[in-house]
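Justification of computing resources. Each target in the renewal requires a structure prediction run like the one illustrated here; the chain below, 663 residues long, is used simply to show the kind of job we budget for.
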Amino acid sequence: MNALCRERRWVVLGCLALASAIAGAPAVAEDALRLEDLLEMKVSSAARRPQSPAEAPSMVSVISAAEIRVFGWRNVGEALASLNGVHLSYDRSYSYMGVRGFGRPGDFTSRVLLMIDGHPINDSIYDQASVGSEFPLDISLVDRIEYVPGAGSVMYGGNAILAVVNVVTRTGAGTGHRLHLNIAEGGGVDAVGTAGWRDSSGNDGLLSIARERSRGRDLYFESYQSGAANAWSRGLDHEANDRLFAQFRRGGFAAALILHERLKGVPGGPFGIDLGHPGSQVRDRRLQGNLRFEHQIDPMSSLNFSAHVMDVRYDGHWFYSGTDQPDGMEARSLGGEVSLTSRAWAGHTWLAGLSLRRDGTRRQFSSSLNSNTPRSAVGLFVQDDMALGERVTLSAGLRFDQVHGNGSYRHLSPRFALIYRPALRTVIKAIAGSAFRPPNAYETDYAFSGTNIANPDLRSERSRTAELGFSHDFDAASGMGGSLYRTRLEDLITIERNAGSNLQQHHNVGRVEAKGLELYGRGQLGTAIWRSSIAWQSVRHESGADLANAPRHLAKMLIDQPLNAGLRLGLEAYYTGARTTDSGQVNRTGAKVGGHSVVHLALGGILSRELEWQLKISNLFDRNFGNVVGTEFSNNFPGVQQSPMPLVIQDGRTLSARLRWTF
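Resulting structure tokens:
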């Protein structure tokens, strides 16, 4: 009953926020210039070319560097969690992003394409989109985050089945020389040094080195308590991150180097490992180089070339009865794209391109596994944005992909978007598209004696999405909008129990349908800038079972309030509605988990022209809540029907402090 009351309260809060926007435009303060900049900001992720969010063939959202600073977000995942229809889960090892209810435990966010400056960073073993502390860049380097929900395969091929996220980095000229120092409860300390410059010849450079260490917390897992049995993981929540980012730009040329190494302890005893052994940990490493070249052929046409090389490694150490059972993976990829954009034909903006990728190494290894299944992919894509008058644009795109490696897959991915402007500040979009995701190496090849068996016969996932969206801007500081959508995903891939062997195995489990309604508002009350959203969403398997970890409601309110004496207050309030746990089988609904709310508060100011400070209290009211996890958190793994630990507890009230020196 209490959870239901809280849910209604947050629904009312979201509706009041939207009503405030509808009532009219509030007084504009000086800080509204930031909202103007956000409204006019160009995005490139939806159609591979710069355009305003209103012109894009998707309901695009943008998070600015100013918002990241005001609210004190520590990583990309925390920033994305502030958007419509997005929820974040954390199992004390990795963070996972749920999109419009799709957030099934164990899926590694593999249905979201994650990019840095337009270059993909999903690895070729798990297809993982690493959005939490495992993201390879420090958050201070982010200029903006572009979020494009819906089927994105027409532009990007596999992985872009539910959404595309593009993290755009700062320029050297826009960064300057900076030092960051962050301290948090739980023994967390990280320092970032960044040097940015631009010379008279137009050479723009950026170099950043970041080092992060955290002792973490001692965690008690009540689900494991039985008599005198140990239910504590002590000293296992530690984490260390080392990052290096170097970037050079000149005109249309850009090159970047990314180095990242992360070491994370594993509390909670997943996969039946010893609950308290200090040697259980995972290590992730990434080396990635990105190149991009844009050439303006003439005033109406441009040629774009990009390439990336990626080396991603994972090493895990899992202790069973005091014995180390290591496993790991190595993934090396080389990819490139070339595309031509032209407005030479009056009333049309068309794009045509070729994409190539070679995953030369997709190796997984353990005491009972040593597999390597290279993969190659080629994609051809074309899109035409046609002006059908002054107020109507039709965006039509088509892509053909062919993937070879541990199976052969061919897919056609169309997308159509009809964009209508009945008034200057009003946009209505009707969007339909399809997308695909071929099974990854982990899903087809992974086997471990006594727990997992491989399945090389998996089929690709395929989705079809239809969406009706609208937005209306009262002025530069206030507006509202929303989306009504339905997504059907065929041949969903998920891990289940093999009936014959009672071991874990990835299966195609039929059709899943997601449908929902999202509404948002933004505006200004006095000097306070606010934005809010509310989402109703349902994700069900064809059997009628609810998909695990799919919240029925999400409500969010963010307030940026300038105060006297140069202070600035950032307030975040989130409500996550009821969802279900992982039953171990997708055709059976798990146990219901009630909703929860959490509030974060950040207060910052300027000590001098060069020195800024911020204090943040995360989980201000010390709410006790957990995130849904998979059946790997089970003392009876494998073959479980219901995980005895369906939730992993999250941090209570946490205080952190940040200093930034610009010189």
